[in-house]
Amino acid sequence: MKKNLSDIIQSCRVLSIVGNPDKMLHGLTFNSKEAGLDIAFFAITGSNSDGHDYIQQAIEAGTNVIFCERLPDFIDSDSTYVVVENTSYSLAMAAAAFYDNPSHKIILTGVTGTNGKTTIATLLHQLFEDAGFPSGLLSTICNKIGNKIVPTTHTTPDPLRINALLNEMVEAGCSHAFMEVSSHAMAQMRTFGLKFKVGIFTNLTHDHLDYHGTFAAYRDAKKLFFDLLPKDAFALVNMDDKNGIFMTQNTKATIKTFSISNIADFHAKIIENQFEGLLLKIGGQEVFTKLIGRFNASNLLAIYGAAELLGMERQDILIGISRLHSAEGRFEWIKSSEGVIAIVDYAHTPDALLNVLKTIDAIRTHNEQLITVAGAGGNRDKTKRPEMARIAAEWSNTLILTSDNPRNEDPQEILEDMRKGIPGQHYKKHLVIADRKEAIKTAIMLAKPGDIILIAGKGHEKYQEIKGVKYPFDDKAELIQLFDSLQQNN
C-alpha cells in the first residue's frame, strides 16, 4: 500500500502545512516506536500521554511526515508538518483514505450498547456465513475474515487496524462485515470515516464511568454513532430500553425498532424459556433456538431485524436463527456427571449480571441452590462494584466473591468495595476467596446434584491480568477440569 500525502489529507481538516507536501507514504502510525521512513506519525493526545511529546522520537526513527495539533518548538527541515484541528479525527479519516475506503466496498453493520454487542455481531456473522455470504467480524472475542480467526485486543480496534482488516475482508471477497462499536471508540473517533449500512442499539446501563465521567457522557458517546449514520443507512434500536428513542434524535438514517414488550417494527414473543433453549414467535412464525433467556430473545430479535434490513429472506433468517449457537463465554453451560449445572458468562456490569441471574431464576425450580462466583475488574469503574455484589447476593443462595482481573489494584481492596454493597439480610450467605481457581473449586464442592453454579465476569477470556501480567486462566476449562477431577475421585 502506497499513497501520496495529498491523497490522504482531503478530509483531515488541515489548518496548515509546513514543509514539502509532496511526500509518498508507505504507512501511518500513532506509535513513535513504529515510526520509520515514509511512515506518517500522528501525535494523538490521549488520557495518559500526549503524542506531541514523542514527535522528536518519531523523527529520529525516520519519520518525515508529522500530523499534529500544534507545531513543536524544534522544526526539522527535512520533515513535513501537517497541522490539523484534531489528530484523532485526522487519523481515522487518513486511515480510511490510505486503504481506499474499504467500508464503502463492503456492507458494514455496527452494534453499540452496554450489553449484547458481542453476541449480536458474532451471531450475525455466523448467520450470514451460513447463508452463503462471505463475511467479516470485528468483536471483543476475535476478528474474523470469513472463518479465518485474527486475534483481537480491543472491543473496537484503532482506525488503522479497522481499515486494514476491512481492506483484507474486501480483498478476500467478503460481502458483509459486522463490528462492535464501543463508547471508547466513539469518544476517540476510531470509527470516523467508516460507512455503515445498519447501526444497532442494544441497551444502555451503568458501565465505563471511570472513562466517561458521567452517565450522560457515556450515553452521548453511544448516540454519536447514530448521529453520524448516513441517510441511506438504517438505525435499528431497542424500544425496551428508554434510551432507544434518544439515540435516534439526530440521525439521518431510517429508524427501525425492535421490542419484546412494546409495539415495534420487529417484535418477538417468548413461548418457552428452558436451559435447552428458547421457543420464540417472530413475525407470526415459531422458531426454536439453543440460546437461553429474555436478553438473548432481544439479541435474536435485533439479529432478525438487521438481517431483514440487509435483504435476507424471512424464512432463511428463521432457519438460520434455529442453527445459531452462543458466542463463546455468553451463557455457556456445562452439566457435570453429578447433575450440577455450571454457567459461564461474561456479565461484568450490574445490568448484565442481573439479566443472567433473572434468566436463571426464570428457569430454575427453586428446589435447588444457586451458587454465584463473581468479581469486578481492577482499574475500572469502582462505583459498579457494590452494586454488582448487591445484585448477586439478592438473587443467589450463596455468593462467592473472587478476583476478576485485578490489574494493578489490590484484589482484597476490590473485594472489600464489593462487600459494601451486600445488604445486611444477605451478608451471611457470602464468602470471600480471592484466588479465582479456589473460588470455583469451592463452588463445585458446595454444589449438590441439581444445583446451579454461575461463574460471572470473564466469559471468553483466557487470562487473568494481575500487576500488569496476563496469566493463563479460562473459567470454562477450569470447570471442566474440576468436574472431571471430582468424577475420578468419586
What's this model, at a glance?
By secondary structure, this protein is of the alpha/beta class. It is built from 16 helices and 26 strands.
SSE inventory with pairings:
Blueprint: E1 3-4, H1 5-8, E2 14-18, E3 24-25, E4 27-29, E5 39-42, H2 55-60, E6 65-68, E7 80-84, H3 87-98, E8 107-112, H4 117-130, E9 135-138, E10 143-145, E11 148-150, H5 159-171, E12 176-180, H6 183-187, E13 198-201, H7 209-212, H8 215-227, E14 234-238, H9 244-247, E15 254-259, E16 266-274, E17 277-282, E18 285-289, H10 294-309, H11 314-323, E19 332-335, E20 341-345, H12 350-363, E21 370-374, H13 384-395, E22 398-401, H14 411-419, E23 430-432, H15 436-446, E24 452-456, E25 463-466, E26 469-472, H16 475-489
Parallel strand pairs: 4-5, 5-6, 6-7, 8-12, 8-13, 9-12, 13-14, 14-15, 15-16, 20-24, 21-22, 21-24, 22-23
Antiparallel strand pairs: 1-3, 2-7, 9-10, 10-11, 16-17, 17-18, 19-20, 25-26
Helix pairs in contact: 3-5, 4-10, 10-11, 12-13, 13-14, 15-16
Task: Explain this structure.
The chain has 490 residues and is an alpha/beta fold. It has 3 domains: 3-98, Udp-n-acetylmuramoylalanyl-d-glutamate--2,6- Diaminopimelate Ligase, Chain: A, domain 1; 102-323, Mur-like, catalytic domain (UDP-N-acetylmuramoyl-L-alanine:D-glutamate ligase), CATH 3.40.1190; 332-489, Alpha-Beta Complex (Protein-Tyrosine Phosphatase, Chain A), CATH 3.90.190. The chain is built from 16 helices and 26 strands. Strands 11-10-9-12-8-13-14-15-16-17-18 form an 11-stranded mixed sheet, with helices on both faces. It has a 6-stranded mixed sheet with strand order 19-20-24-21-22-23, with helices on both faces. A 5-stranded mixed sheet has the order 2-7-6-5-4. Helix 4 (117-130) packs across helix 10, helix 13 packs across helix 14 and helix 15 (436-446) crosses helix 16 (475-489).
